[in-house]
Amino acid sequence: MTQIEFVKCVEGCQKQVRRFLTALCCGDSMRADDIAQDAFIKAYLSCDSVRDEEKFVRWIHRIAYNTFISSQRVVKTSVPLDELYSIESGNRSDASFKYQELYAALDKLSEKERTAILLFYMEGYDIKEIAEITDSTIDAVKQLLKRGREHLKHILR
Amino acid sequence: MNDDKLKKLFADYEPDIQSDAMFMARLERSLRAVEFIKEKKTAAKRRNRVAMAVACAVGFVAGGLFFSVMPYITQWLSSHDLASISPAFQSGQVAEILTYCLGCVSTMALTLASYDMALGLVGCTNVHSR
Fold it and tell me: Which of A109, A116, A148, B33 has the fewest CB atoms within 10 Å of its CB?
């Protein structure tokens, strides 16, 4: 895959990947963009093996998830999201506070639960595909989805 | 909250993120940098391969030349009155051992000289390429 072909493929899916990563980073869009950049560079360095565009998006999601997990080991959020949640916004419709409740709820989930929930509900992947992306078994994904769903429903009541 | 509400919540999710154009511009800059580094690495690999081939050839030629000089060195050693250099050469067996040692030392010196020449060539190629 040439650089031009790769850029074309990325243009088609970058928004979707960044949206997924922003939710995965509980609203930290700057960090999500940094992870997305790293993930796309990693993908570019080994993109010769992927031809199919549909597989490309799933493959990018897998790389993005792995890059997120690697970055999690290094970066620790300096301010807990609970504290951020307590900050009052002057205007409740302010875009940055729009999903405050959702981010706080997502932050309560484990990384694996959060990933499974986002890939299932936001990206529309089926359980088998999620298992491939997260390198888990189908049963493990089912468990993660079940637990994540219960947690979310409980928090977002 | 039921399953449908969860689905709707994530379907409507549109976070406030940096513009696509800015993101793609940053990515394309990084990709160009990656390409630049890849090209540099490929060129360095190619240069090193050539340098190694040249050094190998030079080492082989120098080794061959020095090897052809060896009989002359042996001849020179036997033509000289070694006993006049050291009394140790007067004893037949000791003289043989010392002559053998001299031959070994000269071979080692010649091998080292050809190795140095080859190494020097590789070093010069790398310095010039920077």
Answer: B33
Model pTM above 0.80: no
Contact A156, A104 (CB under 8 A): no
Which residues in chain B have their CB less than 8 angstroms from residue A118's CB?
Answer: 10
Query: In this structure, what token pair is assigned to residue B87?
Result: 């009394």
Record: contact A118-B10, CB cut-off 8 A: yes
The sign of the torsion formed by the CA atoms of B31, B36, B37, B38 equals: positive
Chain segment A108-148, per-residue pLDDT in tens: 899 999 999 999 999 999 999 999 999 999 999 999 999 99
Q: Name the residue among A19, A98, A153 with its Cβ closest to that of B1.
A: A153
Domain boundaries of chain B, sorted by first residue: 48-129
Q: Chain B residue closest to A146 (CA)?
A: B3
Assign 3-state DSSP to chain A and report helix, strand, coil percentages, each to 5: 75, 0, 25
ipTM higher than threshold 0.90: no
Distance of CA B25 to the CA centre of its chain: 39
Domains present along chain A, CATH in parentheses: 1-76 (1.10.1740)
